[in-house]
Amino acid sequence: MAGIRLDHLKKSFGAFTAVQDLDLDVTDGEFLVLLGPSGCGKTTTLNCIAGLETPSAGRILFDGRDVTSDPPHSRNIAMVFQSALLYPHMTAAANIEASLRRSDLAPEERRRRIDDAVSMLEIGDLLDKLPSEMSGGQRQRVATAKAIVRQPTAFLLDEPLSALDAALRMTLRAEIVNLQKRLGSTTVFVTHDQVEAMTMGDRIAVMNGGRLEQIGTPSEIYERPRSLFVAGFVGSPPMNLIRGEVADGVFAAGELRVPLAAAPGPVTLGVRPQHLHVRAEGGLPCAIFALERLGRETVLIVEDRARNRLRLLVEAEFEGRVGDPLDVAPDPARCLLFDDASGLIHAPAN
Amino acid sequence: MAGQVTSTGRTSELSNLQFALLMALPVLLFLVLVVAYPLGYALWMSFQQIVFFGGYRTNFVGLANYATMLGDDKFWWSIWVTVRFTVESVLLAMAIGLALALLLNRPMRRPGLIRTIIMLPWCVSLYGTGIMFSYLATGQTGFATAIAFFFGADRPVSFVNRQWVIEVLAIGNAWNMAPLVAFFLLANLKTIPTRLYDLAAIDRMSPLETFWNVTLPPLRFTLFVFTCITTVLSMKLFDFIFVLSGGGPGTASAVMTYQIYKISFRDLNLGYGAAQSFVLLFLIVGSTMTLYALWGRREAAR
After folding, report:
1. Claim to verify: residue B194 and residue B156 sit in the same structural domain
2. Cβ contact (<8 Å) for B302 and A102?
3. What residues have CB less than 8 Å from B51, skipping those under 6 apart?
4. A interface mutation test: which of B109, B199, B224 has the most A CBs within 10 A?
5. What confidence score (pLDDT) does residue B155 get?
6. B59 within a domain of the structure (yes/no)
7. Tens-digit pLDDT profile for residues A61-113
8. Which of A30, A278, B180, B234 could link B86 by a cystine bridge, Cβ 3.0 to 4.6 Å?
9. Residue in chain B lying closest to A91 (CA)
């Protein structure tokens, strides 16, 4: 096991820069999630760590050792790909063995590692099957076994769950984290799904446009997003972002007024749906646009007179119909303020 | 479900089988007309001696035509020439087709234009291919002569000779068939996820192992199908050989189709020609069945 360090990593394809000047530290045994929309450079970053792409500039260090120009197999990494990629004409057993075929291990050690992985992932009855005869979840387990027999320095996972159905995704999410904690292996997990990132990662690195937007624990990312992008990308339902202006200690946007002690100027106010409340009167006058009942709670989507939509989390039993008027007001103590250029400029004190 | 008016005036249902037979009737009639009748007539002819001169007549001779074959050196020679031509054609067509497919699968500029150009040989008629390769391979007009003269030789080089004419035929045949093979293989190649090559790199597979484990598996069924198709097409090929070499020089390229043509329409020995046609038919059916038994069954099971 090892720590991975990316030092001013840059990768461009022709005129297109996929990753620019990325500094990243993955500590030994950590589960780091690379999160971002498609085209943000997260998979390119993972490919660089794996050695499948050569960086245009910068260095990659495994435990301080420069591996920037090493080929994939000499880095001792294991990779699990989207839709659990396996060699389609090989049985599960042959696929797992293919990971060790070129290693110098003694046959007994090889056997033992495969047996361990097979019992750990409970795939004993799949060994003679071809990938086409397995379900998505089974393929995922075999691909994971194929990765762990190598006892790699690092696991690199590229959206391994995105091709599976929602129920299976939830099951495997917990299984992967549980396995990673038992093995204590350094893991980099790429996803565009912020729920996966929040639930699985020790830390999350949010990427956008080839740059690192923010890195931190899930609660740091959630509570104190450093930029508008992170604020809008992480959290479900998403944070409400309202453009307005601060003057004389009051944030004003249309009819909305929120007392906030911040420097005057144009800003964007961010407030999570659970911190926006329904008021009898004295708030921002709105009308109900839609109700999404989730069972445990209800997402209320309202529209103000300027047709801006806001989301609120209300109790499951909330009574209301589309078109009903109501007032909403944010909790001033839970509001964030963002500046377009410098990102987060005001956050509630914890 | 179709109804049928019966004598009592009520409609009765046709069974599924009856309905299916009714629907299939036109095509069955057509098949009887264009396949079964000629085939049956040819089978009947192969048991006859057919005489044109002094009044057309047929004499039943039983298996005599078939017995004649056993002692006919030209017949055995034509089988050998056919097998040699077929094996060479199939191997060349598959190898060239695979190479073209791999080339076409690489990133390139104007892929549509290049695909169209590569496809063109398939659009040339076999008659035209025959004329072209005849010019290319014979001494007076051939490119080998051109190269030889360029390097100072003073004698033309011809490949249309006893030693090489089969190879010339096989190359021309493969030139015509390979583009189609390439296009079906290319379609298969496009289905390979590129990430599988990354997996092979992590598993430290050599280029040859990567080809064997990643590139080839999705192509194998197509390779089998086209091996069968090119085998059949090569065995029954006639016009191309007729134009290029006319079965010669001598009998060097007298494949079975050419031999049957010569016996039936030049020697007017229709009975004997029909009997040899049946041997060719069984050779074609037998070789595809053998291919299926040895290879196709395994591919189909995947």
Report:
1. yes
2. no
3. B57, B58, B59
4. B199
5. 79
6. no
7. 998 888 888 888 888 888 888 877 899 889 999 999 988 887 778 888 888 98
8. B234
9. B302
The whole model's pTM is what?
0.77
Q: CA of A86: which chain B residue's CA is closest?
A: B196
Mutate to test the interface with A, among B194, B198, B202 (most CBs of A within 10 A): B202
Cβ distance B214 to A87 less than 8 Å, yes or no, reads yes
Before B207, cis peptide (omega within 30)?
Answer: no
Give A97's Cβ-side CA count (13 Å radius): 10
- In this structure, what token pair is assigned to residue A236? 């479900």
Counting one residue from chain A and one from chain B, the pairs whose CB atoms sit within 8 A come to: 52
- Output the domain CATH number for residue B152: 1.10.3720.10
Residues of A in contact with B214 (CB under 8 A): 87
**Mean pLDDT, residues A116-137 taken together:** 88
Question: How far apart, in whole angstroms, are the C-alpha atoms of residue B155 and residue A84?
Answer: 64
Domains identified in chain B, total number? 2
A168–chain B nearest CA distance, Å: 23
Q: Are residues B68 and B39 in the same domain?
A: no
**B232 and B281 together in one domain:** yes
Report the residue count for chain B.
Answer: 302
Question: With 70 as the cut, is the pLDDT of residue A253 above it?
Answer: yes
Of A72, A81, A87, the CB nearest to B201: A72
Token readout for A228 is 């508008």
Q: Does domain A4-228 have CATH number 3.30.390.30?
A: no
Low-confidence stretches of chain B (pLDDT < 70) are 1-11, 301-302
Sorted by where each begins, the domain ranges of chain A are: 4-228, 240-346
In this complex, do A72 and B202 lie within 8 Å of one another by their Cβ atoms?
yes
Q: How far does B296 lie from chain A, in Å, by closest CA?
A: 15
Q: Which helix (H) or strand (E) holds A256?
A: strand A256-259
In terms of residue numbers, what domain contains B113?
64-301
- Same domain, yes or no: B32 and B132: no
Interchain pair B202, A87: CB under 8 A: no
Across chain A, what does the average pLDDT equal? 88
CATH number of A240-346: 2.40.50.140
